[in-house]
Write a structure and sequence with these properties.
By secondary structure, the chain is α+β, with helices and mostly antiparallel strands. It contains 2 helices and 5 strands.
Length: about 200
């Protein structure tokens, strides 16, 4: 009994002493991920503090509140990074992190979580191919709306041999994220950090 109590106390003490380190390492991991989309030399604020909580959106296919990370340089808006979901992946939803510059161009897209087939659909991940980099600098006007499709559907984006469903889902999700940004741009940049008051009248 004494051994059990002592063991529990030791575990509790260890957790208390390491919880701050765990949170710190989680923040470093997140910041590193954000910096693959928006290079650190493009902003001078703290991305992890200049955040905004947004409500679920049909354009982003989100069902829970999510965070927006805002990059600024000398007080000027640079970009935002937020989560989106491609609901119609071959093996289920695909979670993305999308960065968009203030001018509406895509800063970068990264796949956060997916269950796509190894050797086929998983090529959407930067760890398996550079396909995802094809979104860089794209916008709602470049290409035109009718070209925001994979090549098989008459668009400009490559599909994978034997796998069209996955890239098609990601292309649609990224385009919808651009639409979301266009509708909410002013609010995304102007709301106070960590505010949950994103104007619901602008939510699609």
């Amino acid at each position: 009994m004494l051994f059990a109590v002592s063991g529990a106390a030791l575990v509790g003490l260890t957790f208390t002493q390491t919880v701050d380190d765990i949170k710190y390492n989680e923040k470093l991991t997140l910041l590193k991920k954000l910096n693959t989309i928006i290079p650190a030399n493009r902003y001078d604020n703290d991305l992890l503090l200049d955040t905004l909580t947004i409500q679920p959106s049909s354009l982003l296919n989100t069902k829970e509140e999510t965070q927006v990370y805002r990059a600024r340089n000398k007080g000027q808006n640079v970009a935002v990074v937020f989560s989106s979901v491609a609901p119609s992946g071959y093996n289920g939803p695909i979670q993305l992190l999308i960065g968009i510059f203030e001018n509406g161009q895509i800063a970068g897209v990264r796949i956060i979580k997916h269950r796509e087939t190894p050797g086929l659909g998983d090529a959407v991940s930067i760890t398996h191919s550079d396909w995802i980099l094809g979104f860089n600098k794209k916008s709602l006007s470049n290409p035109k709306k009718r070209q925001w499709k994979v090549k098989r559907d008459g668009g400009i984006f490559d599909q994978f041999t034997g796998a069209t469903i996955t890239p098609r889902a990601v292309v649609n999700a990224v385009h919808d994220a651009l639409l979301y940004f266009e509708k909410n741009k002013v609010t995304l940049f102007s709301q106070k950090p960590n505010s949950t008051e994103l104007d619901k009248t602008k939510q699609p």
